[in-house]
UniProtKB/TrEMBL annotation:
Its cofactor is FMN. Residues 18-194 form the Nitroreductase domain. This is NAD(P)H-dependent oxidoreductase. The keyword Protein transport does not apply. It holds the Pfam family Nitroreductase. Belongs to the nitroreductase family. It comes from Flagellimonas yonaguniensis. Keywords: Flavoprotein, FMN, NADP, Oxidoreductase. The keyword NADP applies.
Length: 218
């Protein structure tokens, strides 16, 4: 194994070991515009089923809005102290426009005539459009979680601290952020910023299942 490969492998593990669910952020430290742009680009490049990205991402920096969101977040102070709150909102319903917009983007980006994409478009629609409403919502929520996972790892590479949060009231988030009229639902929240020196959690060993418990090699 080359030295470069060894270093790359070490960085992969070190970054994931360094990351933890930050319980107390340093409210005086803000993410630079450059790092935030990098983090958002990493989110944009996240994988999703068919590449459809059936969700939207809201980035909340406004302190007054964060103060509104805190009571709807089980009063967790990360909401106010973090540099930004990233809200992943999945589409609760969709029609053919979800596929049509994507196919149009493919056509423009790859310079492929729309006629050449009709078969692919029809295939996606046959698998997605007639699903029950609950199934649609569950599927789009899973896609949002893929983006969340990618964000956690990108942030760790940038040495930006994170706390993924499901402890919040979606209906109140939807109301505060104006999501109800857009067929969107706040499904998971990610607080991002920098850990406080007072956060004792950062010094605790990471608790995970052993390889023997977690993996089955076939």
């Amino acid at each position: 194994m080359s030295t470069a490969t060894e270093n790359s492998t070490s960085n992969v593990i070190d970054n994931r070991t360094w990351r933890y669910a930050t319980k107390k952020f340093d409210a005086s430290k803000k993410i630079s515009e450059e790092d935030l742009d990098t983090l958002l680009e990493a989110i944009r490049l996240s994988a999703s089923s068919y590449g459809l990205q059936p969700y939207e991402v809201l980035v909340v920096s406004d302190q007054k809005v964060k103060e509104q969101l805190r009571p709807a977040s089980w009063d967790q102070y990360q909401i106010e102290d973090a540099s930004q709150i990233i809200v992943f909102a999945n589409k609760t319903n969709y029609g053919e426009e979800l596929v049509d917009d994507f196919v149009s983007n493919v056509s423009k980006t790859r310079d492929i005539p729309m006629d050449g994409l009709k078969g692919y478009s029809d295939f996606m629609k046959s698998k997605l459009i007639d699903l029950p409403l609950e199934t649609k919502s569950n599927w789009t929520a899973r896609q949002a979680y893929i983006a969340l996972g990618n964000t956690l790892q990108a942030a760790a590479e940038l040495k930006i601290d994170t706390c993924p949060m499901e402890g919040f009231e979606s209906d109140k988030y939807n109301e505060i952020l104006g999501l109800n009229d857009r067929d969107l639902n706040a499904v998971v929240v990610l607080a991002v910023g920098y850990r406080s020196e007072e956060d004792a959690t950062q010094h605790l060993p990471k608790v995970r299942k052993s390889k023997e418990e977690l993996f089955t090699l076939i």
